[in-house]
């Protein structure tokens, strides 16, 4: 075939371009064979130039090798950069992509234009000379170069996988998922919502006082048949009624005093039905007990007009407290500096005696005497008769004006074996020392009225032949008592931090006082003593100041205090346990109140609280849900609740001048008769004693208590058991704990 002849000008330019692009010419060889261009066959053409539509999704080794060879070509499209990041990118961190772009097919493919990329100056990319801030898009860090290369590779792969038809529409960007409400995120979210108050829009507004359901604090108490100790008699009778109880501060032992004068120790962490130690302390009923701070001494108050201090290591008395002329009502050790040495007793004779065991003390231990004949005999330690260092006679004597204006209510009736007081003497039924730092101050209450008196035991000097004692201050009884008659106080106890005093009154109410306001105005007596300093003393027979009345009160339909043997006790907040107030009741149950004032504030803010959780009928002092009263001046906006008529329906009582809270949980089925004394152990368990000869231990367990509430009576599952009754409409038992 004849070759096509080219023009001479074109031929010359073609030869010039071939010479420029090819390697240097070789010298002609006479022996070599002329080399020709390889022929292109259809097989070879299909091997190297296969259409994209016929390429498989899995590239072959040769195609991967070609793609790797194309890497430098891709790098040429990018702008070379220095290992040092330009200063211009320090201010543009927001430009870095943080989320991967959703893959979608391209409709039109365009090859990047190399002319749009500019090479930077060597000054701007030098690692030695720092450039000035420059916002040109050509300056990029190595991170951005790698990112761009990866993006171009993804585009090449997408083009390889795309179909031949290009009419397909691009995919819409993925929508962001809306946040799920907190109450729909499972148990953990519900727990967070409960901790923050369970209020709507909890994440959108600030909560000054987050309040959860108060029943979560009290709903976990239960008792099994193995948690019961039956008080049997030590003197031949079938059973013996327990009168009082107290717990050790350092261990799990609980002391119980009965009507025969015996003290039995029970272990609240082991077999509760068995007696750990038992001994006789008195020949008459034991009315009250109290351990010292180190648990080595046990003080008793008995109906035989005496008290005793017993060494718990030997179970023998070391001191006899015998200056009262009637039955003793209470005994308390002084905390702080006088711990284990100073204690106070009160009795039906209306007096309070302060004792110091360091006075008139005999030998500390038994003395061994050796005679000349070599005989040995021991002289036992004599019992210390006790030394009264101060006395308060007629501590709560009623003035003649009070006797004429107010009729006397039913007083403290003596039980079998107790020596009653003389006519006209007012029984001092409750004692309580203030916390360390103010341990020289003593609080007393009586059977005649609901007034609480504050005494300085260092500055009282009275006798039966002198005028009556003068307290530091006194609180006025609640105004509602003025319309009917006064009611006495049977028990007092302090809160964990010492800021609240809880007094159990015979009007079926527990009143809460502020200990910082027991003296109104400037009160140097309430100033805590500094380390190594003596608190200021007040003058003898000075003027008594007036203190602030109760702040609020606790009531419940199943809480009755028909006798002075019904007591109250506070569990201090410790080890994750909240502070709780437990009171006995003549209705045969124990009522537990949460003392956290966030629950009380929540009750004040609701003018019509939900009373559906209340169990039983309303008592004489119960408050109807629809009751209204005038607002309390101490708490603006808080509803002052109104009482219903009394049990006899003879008259109606005056409206309360303070808020009254009814948020309490009864512990039902634990006792059949009146629950008198109770105490909290060092592990947070509750021990109650009743007139049904039973001492019962209560433990905390949400699952066990809910099982007893909801399980029913089938197969005797509830026999001998007790539980916290929070009502049938409470939703807390349905939670997955």
TrEMBL record:
Matching SUPFAM superfamilies? WD40 repeat-like
Annotated InterPro entries: WD-repeat_CDT2_adapter, WD40/YVTN_repeat-like_dom_sf, WD40_repeat_CS, WD40_repeat_dom_sf, WD40_rpt
Q: Which Pfam families match?
A: WD40 (PF00400)
Citing just one GO molecular function, the answer is: protein-macromolecule adaptor activity
Q: Which family, according to UniProt?
A: Belongs to the WD repeat cdt2 family.
Protein name according to UniProt: WD40-repeat-containing domain protein
Q: Where is the composition biased (Low complexity)?
A: 13-31
Kindly list the GO CC terms recorded for this protein. nucleus
Query: Which segments show compositional bias classed as Acidic residues?
Result: 155-170
Query: What PROSITE patterns is this protein classified in?
Result: WD_REPEATS_1, WD_REPEATS_2, WD_REPEATS_REGION
Which GO terms are recorded in the biological process aspect for this UniProt protein? Answer: proteasome-mediated ubiquitin-dependent protein catabolic process
Where, in residue numbers, are the WD repeats? 279-320, 321-358
Keyword tags: Repeat, Ubl conjugation pathway, WD repeat
Regions of biased composition (Polar residues) lie at 109-127
Pathway(s) of this molecule: Protein modification; protein ubiquitination
| Region of interest: Disordered | 1-143, 155-179, 617-643
